[in-house]
């Protein structure tokens, strides 16, 4: 199957000059031609294919499995670099990287990050040899070798085989640190404290600028200690509130993860037992046994007093290639939905779903059928 690849979006072409500065050689927006591809390699440039899982089913399946294991989005890039060439200048990335050598041989030199461990963002400019120091790892990858680089380690690589090097880099853990959770938690916690605490809404002392600020940082004015004590009191309330809200914050992290994830790869048998295969939602009844096809395929969150289900079945194989289509239910349906989404290894019978106070089977069937329609539930068998 012939597929068009867009330069700048799905594929890039680059090389390093004699000073090891990266030069991009592609014209963004154009479609890659075979002539451009072969010409780039002949010219000593490296060709990088972004999101190759879009076109390669086995890689898609691999990334999907790893996402479930890591609990974070996993991406991929494929690199083809001709003999004796280096496509990228020394740099560091904001992800955990797994480099898998497929063809040819490539020399990798890895260095400590000059800005400290675990930088939050990728380097914004090329690094010079003078910035690097001595490598902590200098090795050649052969076909079948794997190199793991934690976030932030500076690296550069060049092909040392007579044939082109081909490797794929799998990446994960981008913006999935404690600091990212704090960024979500603290604004909500601050807003809650302001809403609930009269003390937090009181005006600042009218003269606080006369003793607070950098210009007064060396002052022994006793009011500075009182001001700092008041600030610590307010911050302690914020921390306490953030801890109380942590489950809601975790749900927001989960929502981000669901948005980032690949759609799951189902086996032929699994697909046949979902709405994507041979089973219609109309076939669901109180005796139906259902299970979720993957434990992280869907997530229930409570938003503005409504039970909302986010799922990955409509996600694209490219990052954020499709918008989420959440389902909304009355809050009273949440226990039944939660029970279904927890049924991963062991299926659950629809009539046993919790739905207090009435425990109406028809309502339970309606909830199950609506979720089954989305494709992330599989029908196992009829409960005898």
From TrEMBL:
The keyword S-adenosyl-L-methionine does not apply. GO terms for cellular component: nucleolus. Belongs to the ROX family. NO66 subfamily. Pfam families: JmjC_2, WHD_RIOX1. SUPFAM superfamilies: Clavaminate synthase-like (SSF51197). Binds 1 Fe(2+) ion per subunit. The keyword Ribosomal protein does not apply. Its main location: nucleus. This is Bifunctional lysine-specific demethylase and histidyl-hydroxylase. It comes from the Eukaryota. It comes from Octactis speculum. Keywords: Chromatin regulator, Dioxygenase, Iron, Metal-binding, Nucleus, Oxidoreductase, Repressor, Transcription, Transcription regulation. Its cofactor is Fe(2+). Its EC number is 1.14.11.-. It is found in: Nucleus. One of its GO terms (molecular function) is iron ion binding. InterPro entries: JmjC_dom, NO66-like, WHD_RIOX1. Residues 52-189 form the JmjC domain. Oxygenase that can act as both a histone lysine demethylase and a ribosomal histidine hydroxylase.
């Amino acid at each position: 199957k012939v597929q068009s690849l867009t330069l700048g979006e799905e594929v890039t072409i680059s090389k390093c000059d004699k000073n090891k500065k990266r030069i991009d050689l592609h014209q963004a927006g154009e479609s890659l031609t075979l002539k451009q591809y072969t010409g780039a390699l002949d010219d000593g440039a490296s060709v990088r294919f972004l999101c190759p899982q879009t076109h390669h089913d086995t890689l898609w399946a691999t990334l999907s499995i790893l996402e479930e294991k890591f609990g974070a989005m996993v991406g991929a890039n494929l690199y083809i670099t001709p003999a004796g060439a280096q496509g990228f200048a020394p740099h560091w990335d904001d992800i955990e990287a797994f480099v898998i050598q497929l063809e040819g041989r490539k020399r990798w030199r890895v260095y400590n990050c000059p800005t400290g461990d675990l930088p939050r963002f990728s380097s914004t400019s090329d690094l010079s040899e003078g910035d690097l120091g001595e490598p902590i790892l200098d090795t050649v990858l052969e076909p079948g070798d794997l190199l793991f680089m934690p976030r932030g380690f500076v690296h550069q690589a060049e092909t040392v085989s007579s044939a082109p090097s081909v490797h794929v880099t799998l990446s994960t853990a981008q913006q999935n640190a404690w600091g990212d959770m704090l960024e979500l938690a603290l604004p909500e916690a601050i807003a809650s404290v302001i809403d609930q605490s009269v003390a937090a809404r009181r005006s600042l002392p009218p003269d606080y600028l006369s003793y607070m600020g950098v210009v007064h940082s060396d002052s022994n004015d006793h009011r500075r200690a009182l001001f700092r004590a008041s600030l610590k009191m307010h911050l302690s309330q914020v921390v306490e509130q953030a801890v109380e809200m942590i489950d809601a914050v975790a749900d927001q992290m989960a929502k981000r993860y669901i948005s980032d994830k690949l759609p799951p790869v189902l086996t032929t048998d699994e697909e046949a037992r979902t709405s994507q295969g041979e089973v219609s939602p109309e076939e669901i009844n109180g005796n139906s046994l259902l299970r979720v096809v993957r434990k992280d395929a869907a997530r229930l969150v409570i938003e503005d007093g409504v039970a909302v289900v986010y799922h990955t079945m409509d996600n694209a194989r490219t990052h954020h290639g499709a918008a989420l289509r959440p389902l909304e239910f009355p809050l009273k349906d949440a226990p039944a939905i939660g029970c279904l989404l927890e049924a991963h290894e062991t299926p659950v019978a629809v009539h046993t779903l919790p739905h207090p106070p009435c425990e109406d089977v028809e309502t339970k069937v309606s909830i199950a059928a609506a979720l089954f329609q989305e494709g992330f539930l599989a029908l196992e068998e009829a409960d005898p």
